[in-house]
Amino acid sequence: MKDFLLADNLNELFRFAFALTGDHQEAEDLLHSGIERALKSGLEAVEHKNAYVRTVIRNYWYDELRKKKVRQDHTQVMIDEEETISLLEPDPEQVVMDEIQLERSWKTLSDQQRELLYLWCILGMSATEISVELALSRGTILSRLHRLQAHLQKSHSKQVQHD
Amino acid sequence: MTKSVKDAAKQFFNEQSLSDEGLQKILALSQTENRHVDSTTQHSSNKTTKWWVRYGLAASLLVISFWFGLKGINQYQQAHRIELIVAEVVKNHSNLKPLEVNSSNFLQVVNYFDQLAFLPSITQLTLVNDQLGQQLLGGRYCSIQGFTAAQLRMENKIGQFSTLFQTEDAEEFSMIPDLHLESNPVVRFNKGYQVSLWREKGLLMVLVEPASSIVN
């Protein structure tokens, strides 16, 4: 439990919450609520605390998000994912972008895309590992990764034209 | 210099961190939890122990650890998860928070839960309870171990309430029997309630009812 409460570890979870919310203050509130729920559910007895807290935070965020946003956003994403894209796993090392361009693209990303970016680039998860984390099929994850890659590359191209 | 999105993301995220106030609030949360633990263990930590008592205890622990092995630890973790769920649902049930949808029509209640990633279902055990005169009163959102859940409240002929919790089945619930494979749910008793846990139709189901209303 002591390791879990170290500032470095809490900041890692904060960055995950930030990926979901896209906003600094909302991320702090979400992290606080998530850890509070996790502690009440017996976090101390859990072996993989960070993964457990990410699950609690994720579930709590999407509950709150669905109360605020229109359902069509979620439905449209689900329809798009039925289209088959390449089964090859994209490589985050191959997508060219610097941090200024990423910061500009940040606001154009959905919470789902931001979360995916975090799991893919920060935690270094493979498509299989992400599929286990999010309890989704590997095919769905590959589809989302390809769309994320395409979105970032498109966003990067637009910025290069304007610069 | 052009980088990869991986490097850019690492740099971008590393610039984000909790404020001092945010960090203190979270640490304060854990201290509130620890105070409950400390108050029950303080008296024992002040006692002195003889060396031969410590030696004996250490030797006993080694024997016990060898005896249980990894399988025993795994069983403990699984059992502990069940106890956590039982405590959580009993607390939720006994709070009797106001229902968000009031109806005796199951379909009408299910239609209210449009923000769930699963479809609440009638279970075989609900059908059994119909024979005991249970009537559906309505439902509300809740959570089980961090997973969003539906809470369905029922009332029997003598005015006692029971609650059926449903959430999506997950790896965390794998120790709970699947009704399609095994015949009986796990049953626990907690604070005068009987709690039955089982998995059915891809869902985790947990039923909380007064132990005194059970007809044997």
Outline the structure in words.
The complex is a heterodimer of chains A (163) and B (216). Chain A is mostly helical. Chain A has helices spanning 7-21, 24-40, 49-68, 71-80, 99-106, 111-122, 127-134, 138-162. The radius of gyration of chain B is 23 Å and the shape is extended.
Instruction: Output mean pLDDT of chain B.
Output: 78
Tell me about the biggest sheet of chain A? Answer: none
Order of helices and strands of chain A: HHHHHHHH
Largest interface: A-B, 53 and 39 residues
Give a count of the beta strands of chain A, DSSP E runs of length 2 or more: 0
Regions of chain B with pLDDT < 50 over 5+ consecutive residues? none
Principal-axes geometry of chain B comes out as: extended
Strand content of chain A: under 5%
Number of separate helices of chain A: 8
Shape of chain A: globular
Describe this protein with a few key phrases:
heterodimer, A: 163 residues, mainly alpha, 8 helices, 71% helix, globular, B: 216 residues, alpha+beta, seven-stranded antiparallel sheet, 5 helices, 7 strands, extended
Short description:
The complex is a heterodimer of chains A (163) and B (216). By secondary structure, chain A is mostly helical. Helices cover 71% and strands 0% of the residues of chain A.
Lay out the secondary structure.
The complex is a heterodimer of chains A (163) and B (216).
Chain A: H1 7-21, H2 24-40, H3 49-68, H4 71-80, H5 99-106, H6 111-122, H7 127-134, H8 138-162
Helix pairs in contact in A: 1-2, 1-3, 1-6, 2-3, 7-8
Chain B: H1 5-14, H2 20-45, H3 51-95, E1 101-102, H4 106-112, H5 124-130, E2 135-144, E3 147-155, E4 161-168, E5 186-190, E6 193-200, E7 203-210
